[in-house]
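Summary of Year 1 activities. Much of the first year was spent building the evaluation harness for sequence design. The harness presents a backbone, in tokenized form, and records the residue chosen at every position. We chose the following record to illustrate the format because it has been used consistently in internal testing since the harness was completed.
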């Protein structure tokens, strides 16, 4: 088998896939549990329990209604107390606050109860979440470049162990500013873990399997949500929750020896001896013969052997230069924003829903498991456009019904569980939109700008994550608590309308040039063919981006 061979030929000869690839895939996918912990941890770290002013020692013998006024909802005022016992003029709390938290040893504590982030300071909890996602956005830019320069495995390990050190360090912070700064930096490294994990396992498989590889990791996210809920319920103190969630990362020290470097990256960078070592290791584990391939003669897709110095460079302007790509780009940017905004908006609001916040969050994780698995089937069977349309409609309806359904029936019986169920259904639908938006982020755009388009879509997705906690905070600050859910529902409904303006790409051959992408009409028929339909059954376009070595594979996340 001397001579030149494609990278796909080499990967195919190493197992279809073999036990080695499957085990490594599972090990890397476990990283997504840590990503879920950190993206959603503020549901518990930043939860605001019921509270009221702490009365002075001289007033302890009086009842609360003599020292604290009632608000418009006939509940003890959270931020004011009487100047004199018995009523009259009020003043802001000047002795701190009393929090109605879960008892235990240790009792429930959050950054809110520890640093009194209530009343005039209540914006700080949602701000901490927003700044964390700013860190995630920065990490997407930094560690994509680092991964291309120093390797997927090396960058992944750096991010994992930096997160381990910072995650342990977080439990020792003494004030809010320290907490926010460390969480922002953790967000950067978490995004480095996510991007390089995704690229590392996607580059192990031939295109035939990458469609499933690129979606089957999502249940690990749901497992992370479930585990977060269980740990938070068992421990309840935010520092000990943080320690319990970060300590298992110590086990990833074994990744130094267990994980291989990406063969694609090694071959692109001329690391042929290291590539041979990886090939021998895989074949030995899979109990198959070493393929008679010379790494130096393996052809990498997207790298031309002719006129290697001649290359056309594209800029973000190419995403808006031509009319059809421009339309697709603006819609794709919005639906990525909507998906993240609605999902994180609903997820982060869980602690304020009716019912036990731990049980509600746990139920959400349980529901996401089948939601992700069902989405894989639905998107492969019915395409992208109409399933996404339905998912966005359900998500929008769930958001709005979660605040418009009645809390009591005519007899006064509490039926607020209906609101919680509606919110959970909306969250499940929002979670299901991720796979479809990821597919569209690749399939709508030609090879020459696909990585750039994906990266830009991911940027707007991160903007959605940044905006979501501020939408939730706006409802609390304004006193109109229904506003966030109505806004999120409207965002989702608009996404449902806009997605109908996109072509169906399930059976579409992925365009390679700007000109080909401009031929795609709303029916998706311009460059349609049966062969492409087989290849693109579940969205190979996401994982087979056709990138040259200089382009940033990791930017897509």
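For this record, the design step produced the sequence shown next.
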């Amino acid at each position: 088998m001397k001579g030149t061979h494609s990278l796909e030929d080499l990967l195919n000869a190493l197992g279809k896939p073999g036990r080695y690839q499957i085990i490594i895939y599972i090990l890397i996918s476990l990283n997504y549990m840590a990503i879920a912990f950190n993206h959603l941890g503020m549901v518990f770290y930043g939860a605001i329990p019921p509270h009221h002013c702490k009365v002075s020692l001289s007033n302890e013998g009086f009842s609360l209604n003599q020292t604290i006024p009632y608000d418009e909802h006939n509940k003890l005022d959270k931020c004011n107390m009487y100047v004199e016992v018995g009523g009259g003029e009020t003043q802001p709390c000047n002795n701190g606050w009393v929090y109605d938290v879960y008892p235990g040893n240790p009792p429930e504590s959050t950054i809110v109860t520890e640093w009194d982030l209530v009343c005039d300071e209540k914006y700080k909890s949602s701000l901490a979440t927003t700044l964390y996602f700013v860190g995630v956005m920065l990490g997407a830019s930094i560690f994509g470049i680092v991964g291309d320069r120093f390797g997927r495995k090396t960058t992944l390990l750096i991010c994992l162990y930096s997160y381990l050190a910072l995650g342990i360090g977080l439990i020792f912070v003494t004030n809010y500013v320290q907490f926010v700064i460390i969480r922002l930096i953790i967000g950067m490294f978490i995004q480095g873990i996510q991007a390089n994990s995704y690229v590392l396992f996607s580059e192990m498989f031939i295109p035939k399997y990458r469609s499933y590889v690129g979606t089957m990791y999502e249940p690990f996210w749901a497992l992370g949500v479930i585990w977060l809920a269980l740990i938070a319920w068992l421990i309840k103190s935010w520092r000990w929750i943080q320690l319990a969630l970060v300590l298992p990362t110590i086990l990833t020290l074994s990744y130094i020896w267990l994980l291989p470097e990406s063969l694609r990256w090694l071959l692109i960078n001329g690391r042929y001896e290291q590539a041979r070592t990886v090939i021998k290791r895989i074949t030995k584990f899979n109990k198959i013969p070493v393929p008679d391939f010379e790494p130096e003669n393996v052809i990498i897709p997207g790298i031309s052997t002719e006129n290697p110095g001649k290359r056309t460079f594209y800029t973000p302007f190419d995403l808006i230069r031509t009319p059809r790509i421009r339309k697709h780009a603006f819609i794709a940017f919005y639906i990525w924003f909507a998906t993240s905004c609605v999902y994180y908006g609903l997820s982060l609001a869980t602690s304020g829903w009716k019912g036990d916040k731990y049980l509600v969050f746990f139920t959400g994780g349980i529901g996401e498991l089948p939601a992700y698995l069902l989405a894989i089937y639905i998107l492969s069977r019915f395409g992208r456009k109409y399933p996404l349309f339905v998912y966005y409609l359900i998500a929008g309806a769930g958001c709005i019904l979660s605040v418009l359904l009645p809390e009591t029936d005519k007899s006064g019986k509490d039926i607020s569980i209906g609101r919680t169920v509606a919110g959970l259904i909306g969250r499940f639908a929002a979670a299901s939109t991720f796979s479809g938006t990821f597919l569209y982020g690749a399939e709508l755009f030609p090879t020459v700008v696909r990585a750039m388009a994906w990266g830009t879509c991911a940027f707007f997705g991160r903007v959605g994550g940044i905006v979501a906690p501020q939408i939730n905070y706006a409802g609390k600050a304004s006193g109109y608590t229904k506003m966030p859910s109505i806004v999120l529902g409207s965002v989702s409904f608009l996404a449902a309308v806009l997605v109908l303006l996109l072509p169906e790409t399930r059976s579409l051959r992925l365009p390679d040039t700007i000109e080909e992408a401009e031929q795609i009409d709303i029916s998706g028929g311009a460059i349609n063919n049966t062969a492409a339909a087989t290849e693109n059954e579940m969205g190979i376009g996401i994982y087979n981006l056709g990138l040259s070595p200089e382009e940033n594979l990791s930017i897509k996340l």
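DSSP finds 23 helices and six strands in the chain. Quantitative recovery figures across the full test set are reported in Table 2.
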